[in-house]
Amino acid sequence: MGFDVPPEAYGRYMGRYAEPLSEVFGAFAGIGAGAKVLDVGCGPGALTSHLLSIGAEVSAIDPSPSFIDAVRVRFPQVDIRRGTAEELPYDAGTFDAALAQLVVHFMTDPVAGIRQMARVTRVGGVVAACVWDGPSGALAPFWNAVHVLDAAATDEALLSGAHRGHLTEIFEAAGLHDVHEDSIAVDVVHPTFEEWWEPYTFGVGPAGDYVQRLDDDGRARLAAVARERLGDGPFTVTATAWAARGTA
Questions:
Q1: Alpha helices in the chain (DSSP H)
Q2: How far is CA 177 from the centre of its chain?
Q3: Per residue in 38-93, pLDDT tens?
Q4: Which part of the chain is the Methyltransferase type domain (predicted)?
């Protein structure tokens, strides 16, 4: 799956949604100044940036070397390591909170990943995660256009956590207590259709993989269907995510 990409490509593809989402997600998780927080699957640093801006002490981890390098350049004060959620290289009880933004649906074993996040969080600390809702998340307009042409295409709505209750099931299976799940959302204005469409051609994530498998005519047909549905711009995408938090 295409996530080992230049940070700039990921930023144009998902950062435009992930950055405003970070503020809403951080508030949902109840993170404040002075908290010692682990950002799991940090990507190029959208959530890390927000957490630092509110005065949290942040460590971060991601499997992508290019993302790790980007965060090290942006935030040299952050302890960032290469690794996955399922095998976190930290001692038990190291953090006040462990957060995963837009990551659970790409974990190889989501229950194991959340269980590891709980392990490295102190007793009574917070574990939180959010993922895009399948039918109304940031990528829904893209997949809706795909389904006009390819009704059988497998989209990201089937990934872990993409519907109400999925995150709660994962959190409870991982042994977390007092689990609370709710929807959170951000509005992102796209000034032109081209600004919205072009990042889908960068090969990032399942959507990017799908576009890269198309030939030139297929891409042109998909872009035309999407433009017909969205317009030339400006237009607003309301991106909804499910968020869950629990107590370690």
A1: 7-10, 16-29, 46-53, 65-74, 110-119, 140-149, 166-173, 193-197, 205-213, 216-230
A2: 23
A3: 999 999 999 999 999 999 999 999 999 999 999 999 999 999 999 999 999 999 99
A4: 38-128
Place of tokens 């980007």: 70
Q: Which two structure tokens, joined as six digits, stand for 4? A: 């080992």
Q: Which residues pair with 235 in a beta bridge?
A: 190
Q: Residue 9 and residue 7: Cα distance in Å, rounded? A: 5
Per-residue pLDDT tens for 14-25? 999 999 999 999
What are the residues whose beta carbons fall under 8 Å from the beta carbon of 234, sequence distance 6 or more?
189, 190, 191, 192
Q: Which domains does the chain have, with CATH numbers?
A: 7-135+156-186+240-247 (3.40.50.150)
Predicted confidence (pLDDT) per residue in 179-216, tens digit: 999 999 999 999 999 999 999 999 998 899 999 999 99
Distances (CA, A) of 38 to 3, 90, 150, 221: 20, 10, 39, 42
How far apart CA 169 and CA 216 sit, in angstroms, is 41
121-132 and 79-82 as β-strands: parallel, antiparallel, unpaired?
unpaired
